[in-house]
Amino acid sequence: xxxxxxxxxxxxxPAASAGPKRAARASRRTRFSRRLTPWLFLIAPLALLLTFxxxxxxxxxxxxxxxxDGVSPELTYTGTENYTELLTRSELFEVFFVSGYYLVASxxxxxxxxxxxxxxxxxxxxxxxxxxxxxxxxxxxxxxIGFVFLxxxxxxxxxxxxxxxxxxxxxxxxxxxxxxANTSLAGVSVWRYTGLNFVLxxxxxxxxPGELYEAAEIDxxxxxxxxRHIIAPGIKPVxxxxxxxxxxxxxxxxxxPYIMTGGATGTETFVIQTVKLAFQFNKTGLASAAAVVLLLxxxxxxxxxxxxxxxxxxxxx
Amino acid sequence: xxxxxVLAGSIAVLALLASACTGTGGSSKGADAEAPDxxxxxKGSITVLTHRTDLVQDGTMKKYAAEFNKTHPGVKVExxxxxxxxxxxxxxxxxxxxxxxxxxxxxxxxxDYPTFFASLGSKAERSAKYRFTDYSTVDGKVYxxxxxxxxxxxxxxKKVWSEAGVTDWPTTPADFLADLKAIRSxxxxxxxxxxxxxxxxxxxxxxxxxxxxxxTNATTKLAEGDPWARGADLRVADTLLHDxxxxxxxxxxxxxxxxxxxxxxxxxxxxxxMWLGSWAVVQMRDxxxxxxxxxxxxxxxxxxxxxxxxxxxxxxxDYQQAVNVNSDNKEAARAWIDWFTxxxxxxxxxxxxxxxxDAPLPDVLKPYEEQGVKLIDLDDTKGAEVKSIxxxxxxxxxxxxxxxxxxxLARGARKGSLDDFLSDLGKRWxxxxxxxxx
Lengths: 317, 438
Fold this sequence. Notes:
Chain A has helices at residues 2-9, 20-63, 81-88, 96-121, 127-139, 142-153, 158-165, 178-206, 210-218, 223-234, 236-251, 255-260, 270-279, 284-308.
């Protein structure tokens, strides 16, 4: 497409009447405007991207080298002091243990999503209904989910009454101990994000040409073999994307624990800790540094992951 | 490759630009907001930022404004109610546009008051008439005035307490624990409700400071000593909270408490006691009216500690109203603050302590008067220092975190002993003080 337009733009060989000079000038102008056009289209999105993504990040990086308290007109440049403080206070990184719960949960989440996506890619009764049911939680606002599940886990709340109907009488405070609370919260996060993974997987599975299944069936392959040899390799790029998203998501969990427990009872994550540093203790500088460090950690983890599992071209045929 | 370099370069340029922008200008320092000589002459339109979203929504604030206009016909008052007051005002204060009258957010450091607010007058002149001038005085000038004062205390359901056979206020923490145990065994009520999940009610425990030792220099002591030393006020308070939880005298699952729901429960006698402040009495009485129980059952008692045979209670200000230093209508704004403090009847409506020194005690505190509870005003000259130590140490005596940990410790969801926990807090406090002093 681009090639043909460029060809059309090429100046027509000068006719005798038109001077060679004039043609050259015209062509330079058209070439310039042609180069300019895509940028004109890009101005709006680029401006938005720069103002709302890169400028705040740049600002944050700048704050991370100061001792700003978030409101005072005075701020002093402190060099790398915030980073030194951050890296010498090991207790600030202990909260990453909490991410372990979410990491385990995301394995469950991916397996569940993959299972349902595979199941619903075959011809199942009510499949569109089930697709809707599975995707629905992802559409709900995270804050609302937090409140809903607060009632769910309450003493005598939804979970207890459902278990009661099944004849199980627990007297368990679901958010009462660090282990129980983190597991419950990670469960909520699985409930919320399974739908997203499910849709990603389903889309990838459906982009696999149907003839492959037919051919496989003729060859006598069962559902498991179809999954093992057609679906699994076919959705590998999406699978690795999901893993990257899950890992970085587990490292930066925020909404659900923040709304439900506020980080109490050992459920504090790195982002909650950062928010508390910035808005409770007015250490905006230190908190910015913590945010930068989290960004670097996520980038590093992603890089390592890409190294271990390189992105290969998938060729099913 | 080339493109990446360009991108990296442009980000670097942006970072430089941004860092150049971060220094906010705030050169107009030290303006005064003078009261108008003749109230009917004051003119202008003012915006009042307030945290009382409830009063703006139900029209109460409009009524105040109408009343104000009777004496100040030239001033137009508008209200801007903010749900997340602290968070939103903090961000707005990075600009010049933060209303004409506002409540001083807790985040602003005292030394920065002159950059943000116009002075209301000298301390010598204002302290003769008003309470709490100490809390907003910088270099002898006062920058804010709280329209009400509050006194901390236990809100309790009188019926439940008398059912348990307790009629006199307990005078020591041990007595208090014994009374709660009596409530547990003789009634169905939850003896004490922590409000753990909503967090801020736990911060109220810091207001015990001063009540135990009956010392007006309690705040100075925080700044200069270990708040959790043996016998220190905060240690006594935190130990009591710990013991209440440890003895199982609280709700079954603190992690899912609900503040709004706790109000009718206290009114109905399902909850016996909560540590809050005099400001909560009016809310509990409203809840009682709505629940169809007797509002007179809601009682209020001081912290169980006595000095020389008398209870002590500390008076403290609520949010303090101040005039924006960048306001174009400082006179009108000042007139509003004066009127709201002196004549609006806001303190009476909230059953709160009046900011005027010569005003009588509110109804709620009548039992205090009868029992001879001493009301003391703390000296707040070191208040700013305490706040910076608190932030620097990340202990957070005005934040809920450490008390949540304390409650977790007491109910066994966290390992460790109370002594170790409190001495660790003291250690962090001392370290922060040392690092700030250097």
